[in-house]
Amino acid sequence: MAGVEHRLVRSVAEPGATFQRTEKRQVGSSRPPLTTSLLRFCRSKNRRSSRNDRNVCSVSPDREAQPAWKTPGGDLVPQAQPTQAFVARAGVVARAVRAAGIPAPVTGVFLYSTRTPGLGFDTWQQKNSWSSGRVAFADGVQFAEGGTTRVDFADGSNETMQVLEAQQALTEAIGPPNDICERMPSCETLTITGGSLTTTDVETSHGRATVPAWSFTVQGLSRPVVAVAAPAGVLKSLQWPDPLPGLARLEQGLLRVGVLDWVDGKTLSFEVSHGLYETDLRAHVVEYDDLVVIGGSHGPLLPGGADVGKTSTGVVTLGKPLGDRAVIAEDTGVRLTPYPYLRK
Asked: Phi/psi of residue 123, each to 5°?
């Protein structure tokens, strides 16, 4: 019984760039059935060589099957040949990134949780006072010394850090104040009447960790305020890079890129944003020697479909391992860093 063989052929988009083009051809019953989620096509001594055979990629994803390691949190968007619009956009983005200088990869441990886990208030006035930075220590209140501690992360790494003093931990927990109380005369100052060192669990780019924290007792509040006591220079805030200046708006039919979930050799998993009723979602990649540009495309909007946003998971397989090449988002031109613990 005849079947269909899928082959991914490397095609040249422009000098130094490659992307993967999918071909299908009928094969006889002597071929093995295509049942795995990753199909491997390698050159064989017994196979007749052709010009296309010399460029066949070694591994290609089956569009109908889902890889076993699929990241949770959205539908799988399969890889397909990049559209002409995507290839053109990738070229523009790559040139702009090189002109600005390819950003260095981010390093360090990033805090995914807030610096005040479980923060809650009894009244909206208390919440507004906190947001406005109207928090003070009661006269004569004393706190213990911070000292140093070692924090172990779920990925096996650890960090030795200085435990913040109570005042500094409170300042970093509140962050830059937004003084809504200027427009809310009913706001009152929250008064901290005591506190003690404790620990709290947080999510980080290196996995879950138990970190030092201050537990503050606040007058009139039914629960304590817990503030992370690890320095912001050690547990960094997760900040999305600013879009590369000067890039034109994303062309119609292309998808926006979110978090880079995972990098595993040749395989990249990342978020794509799209409309709920957009059809024919596909993930794309164009490779260069110094960087790769990822993103996707969609087909027409279904008739009568509302413009409702949704996030799904795109997966692409490169022609060779990523190595130290930068992963660049097609829509913003920013360098993406994998945060494998960001989604559960």
From this structure: -135, 160
